[in-house]
Amino acid sequence: MEFTTKIAIVVADDLAGWQKMNIVAFLSTGIIAENDNLIGEPYEDRSGVTYNPLCIQPILILKAPRAKLNTFLGRAERRGVQAAIYIEDMFATGHDEANRETVKRYETADLPLVGLAVRADRKDVDKIIKGAKLHD
After folding, report:
1. pLDDT, tens digit (0-9, with 9 covering 90-100), for 72-92
2. Owning domain of residue 76
3. In the chain, which stretches have pLDDT less than 50?
4. How far apart are CA 115 and CA 43, in angstroms?
5. What is the pLDDT of residue 36?
6. Dihedral of CA 49/31/15/58: which sign?
7. Of the candidates 3, 11, 9, which has an alpha carbon nearest to the alpha carbon of residue 32?
8. Which of 31, 49, 70, 103 sits a CA distance of 20 to 30 A from 124?
9. How far apart are CA 118 and CA 73, in angstroms?
10. CATH no. for residue 12?
11. Domains in the chain, number
12. Is the pTM of this model over 0.85?
């Protein structure tokens, strides 16, 4: 199946593995929450056991230096693409309200980004994340 949109998550390349996985998990929910048409049907195995539905569209996971993340956010804003973000301070919080409070402390240009996610037209996403590399 060919999608007209692309989902990309970019994480800072200098983080520990658990931090990168945590960011990807949180940011993917941010994209899916804004696009309820991304959730497929429940899965069922031959034994009749059902499992939760998953995202219907592939998610591209990339890495980049932290400084590039703010560049990507600026590109998204200029194209009118809303991003999901994760800032470094969020590693020290324990819940959503505290996460939102930490983000509120910063001006956009000063956000200590360690991850961001976007979903938009394929060409727009390619332009937004230009310079990021596939995560290994």
Report:
1. 999 999 999 999 999 999 999
2. 5-134
3. none
4. 30
5. 82
6. positive
7. 9
8. 103
9. 9
10. 3.40.1490.10
11. 1
12. yes
